[in-house]
Amino acid sequence: MKIYVCCKQVPDVAMTIQIKDGKFISEGMNYVLNAYDASCVEEALVLKEKYGAEVTLVLIGDEAGKEALRKGLAMGADNAFHISDPALNNLGSQAAAKVLQAFFKGRDFDFILTGKQAQDSDMGLAGGILSGLLNLPYVTNAVGLDVQDKMIVVKRQGDEGVEVLHMPMPSLITCSNDMNDPRIPSLKGIMASKKKPMEQVSLTDLGLSADEVLKESQKSSLKSFGLPPARKAGAKIEGDAQTLVATLMEKLTKEAKVL
Amino acid sequence: MNFELTEDQKMIRDMVRDFARKHVAPGVLERDQNGTFPRDLINQLGELGLMGMVYPEEYGGSAADTVSYALAIEELARYDASLAITVASHTSLGTGHLAMYGSDELKKKYLPDMVSGKRLAGWGLTETGSGSDASGMKTTAILDGDHWVINGSKIFITQGTEGEVFVILANTDKAKGAKGVSAFLLEKGMPGFSHGPKMHKLGLRSSDTAELVFENVRVPKSHLIGHKDLGFIQSMKVLEGGRIGIGALAVGIARGSLEDSVQYVQQRSQFGGPIANQQALRFMLADMWVQLEASRDLVLRAAVLKDAGKPYNKEAAMAKLYSSEAAMKICHQGIQLHGGYGYMEEYHVERYYRDVKLCEIGEGTSEIQRMVIARELLKA
Ligand SMILES: Cc1cc2nc3c(=O)[nH]c(=O)nc-3n(C[C@H](O)[C@H](O)[C@H](O)COP(=O)(O)OP(=O)(O)OC[C@H]3O[C@@H](n4cnc5c(N)ncnc54)[C@H](O)[C@@H]3O)c2cc1C
Q1: What's the CATH superfamily of B121-230?
Q2: Which of A36, B57, B138, B295 has its CA 20 to 30 A from that of B277?
Q3: CA distances from B74 to A164, B20, B79, B88 (A)
Q4: By three-state DSSP, how is residue A96 classified?
Q5: CA angle at residue A173 from A171 to A174, to 5 degrees?
Q6: Residue pair B249/B77 in contact by the 8 Å Cβ criterion
Q7: CA A113 to chain centre
Q8: Domain B233-378: what homologous superfamily?
């Protein structure tokens, strides 16, 4: 089996995010493997251990992206492609999918996994657009994967409950981070990851021009960032039980109008 | 001069941090309160390759450098110093002594299981009558045919009850004092080899400290580690490396106290606003941070020298001395910043304060470190 996992490096959400004049301040940020993608890698590795498979990572990004790829390799993926070009910074979902389409052209695979969204932009578009461009069957929000009789058995979290779908190979599946708890790479994995192949791919290698990418990027792009408004302080009611209940009733009926 | 960690070092640090947050932090209070030895966590650390990370691949290690090792100990100590001292003493003392001086035969037989964490190692130098002056030990080893016969006892031995493989120091030529001490490998279960109960301690309560007793323990001749009568010199070398680990332990504990305090002062409100607004406390925090960073730099400098194969004796002593004393102050301030809450067990800072004291005592007290440093300074 040949499994591709498309990944992205995202700012470490455990750190404080800083935004200035509508722009995200990337200085001093740590970049990590997108949590949803980490779940894809984990699931691919479980399938590899069960049935045997080659797990290949693909990432579009700058130098920081390499660290995310190394994390995936340290977890146990076999090899990686790092698509990198100055024109590929701050890529919109449409453009990312276009670049990946070019990457997958002529490649053989059984399925492509990708996170259902990235932790930084939470767009959740690239996977869907890519499946359209590659003309692949597509399922979203997977919470479980298996392979039976050459079909991919996908458990997906629907609105009403978990649905089980049988998908042909090849397909594209976007995954939830509820699917598993990604393994922590072992020290041996970290040491071995240095020796695993990580191939650099440029736009020219993909037969794309910077202009083409820019045009695609404008179809969906991020205009500005803003922090959510600070939460207003709550009201504290004080007094004996009688006053408390009376004031609360008053507030619920007159101010909040919920009663 | 370069203060950047390599990509490997960062990955290893992040991996241990990830593990510590997910698996070590939960349950640390209960383990401390009940003195529960975390065998399951040690198994997990073994699987991750962290029970003997610096040793060669042929024995199951990853040949990681000392910098990575120090970072790993700091990350573990950040959440659980008891676990960190267990890993550090297992790695650098018992396992370290065997790895550095043992015969190929002994290493092949014992190291793989130690490096994987399957069998924990202990190291016995200290006796009731000989601590700082370890050369005054009373334990003896006398050759009888194909065996060494060992008699005596050791005190305060980490992994004393849980350990399965021990390196212990004994007199092989009493007349020669420190120059008549040799190291031996003992296994749990050898007839005549027993241990006392787990000792009750101020801190590091879920680490395992006990007395070892040797009553005519017959140890095969091949279990002599390295050359006869060189055990004391070997021990000094083993301790030199161990001090980097104790320094890292102090840094990790102090970081816990600082991080918790930074969070607390922003949440705790008095006199109409967060106490973080009080300049007196801000200055305290600033001092804590400076001391923490200086400590870490000293520890990593000693580690860098060791990795480069350069002498690092005084640097390791300085790192251990400074970081443990700085950590004492930081942990002391940590409680102060928490007020009464800091005195209560739930807030961790009282545990850091109890745990960190060991750093000024184990593997050579602060006074002994000062002796080492002054000796280097004043040597011709
Ligand atoms: C939790 C814990 C774990 C330990 N684990 C191990 C272990 O695994 N293996 C092991 O072998 N040992 C272990 N030890 C023992 C530890 O290394 C010794 O306690 C330490 O070396 C000090 O020896 P001592 O306790 O005999 O104190 P002493 O040597 O009696 O010291 C008492 C005081 O006198 C000071 N002092 C002594 N000599 C001088 C001098 N010349 N000049 C100035 N001051 C001096 C000391 O600094 C100290 O302040 C452990 C101890 C503890 C508490």
Answers
A1: Butyryl-CoA Dehydrogenase, subunit A, domain 2 (2.40.110.10)
A2: B295
A3: 45, 10, 9, 10
A4: helix
A5: 160
A6: yes
A7: 10
A8: Butyryl-CoA Dehydrogenase, subunit A, domain 3 (1.20.140.10)
Measured N-to-C along each axis, helices B66-79 and B231-267 cross at an angle, to the nearest 10 degrees, of 50
Segment B346-357, tens digit of pLDDT:
999 999 999 999
The reply to whether residue A74 touches residue B11, judged by beta carbons under 8 angstroms, is yes
Residues 6+ apart with CB under 8 A from A132: A97, A138
Stated pTM of the model = 0.91
Ligand 1 lined by B196 (C-beta under 6 Å) = no
When CB atoms are compared, the residue of A184, A188, A190 closest to B8 is: A190
Domain B7-115: CATH superfamily, name plus number? Acyl-CoA dehydrogenase/oxidase, N-terminal domain (1.10.540.10)
Is this complex scored with an ipTM above 0.85? yes
Query: What topology does CATH give the domain A2-217?
Result: Rossmann fold (3.40.50)
Query: Is A187–B53 a contact, with Cβ atoms under 8 angstroms apart?
Result: yes
Helix A63-75, helix A35-51: angle, nearest 10? 30
| Mean of pLDDT over chain A | 92
Q: How far apart are CA A115 and CA A122, in angstroms?
A: 10
